[in-house]
Amino acid sequence: EVQLVESVGGLVQPGGSLRLSCAASGFTFSSSAVSWVRQAPGKGLEWVSSIYSYISNTFYADSVKGRFTISTDNAKNTLYLQMNSLKSEDTAVYYCAKNGGGWGQGTQVTVSS
Asked: What is the dihedral of CA 73, 94, 62, 77, to 10 degrees?
């Protein structure tokens, strides 16, 4: 069974940083594609970033490119999202997801002064 558990998000001031983590189990992490997806209040799902560990490729939405970094620790089966220079529009519930099936429960990130 695919299981994904995100770390607790939080409240961050604009311009601040936050790192999310996602502990994965039930699949071979190092040979899978995994992603971060977010949902802002009152809006639909927005893809944020993906990583294909087996070919060392990363992809980012234009809205976060240059500010967010996706990475994995295959030994720990953990996915990360380092978020820098946060903006109010980054406020959302963030989900980690395994491409092809499996979602975490989501974690709230609020960017506000």
From this structure: 10
Question: Within the chain, how many helices (H) and strands (E) appear?
Answer: 0, 10
Task: Measure the CA–CA gap between 27 and 77, rounded to whole angstroms.
Answer: 9
**Strand, coil or helix: what is 7?**
coil
For 36-61, give one letter per residue: b (16+ CB within 10 A) or e. bbbeeeeeeeeebbbbbbeeeeeebe
Query: What does the pLDDT look like over 83-102, one tens digit per residue?
Result: 999 999 999 999 999 988 89
- R_g of the chain, CA atoms, integer Å: 13
In the structure encoding, which two tokens stand for residue 43, read together? 């809006």
Two tokens at 21?
């983590």
Q: Where is 12: in which H helix or E strand?
A: strand 10-12
- Residues near 21 by beta carbon (within 8 Å), at least 6 away in sequence: 6, 7, 78, 79, 80, 81
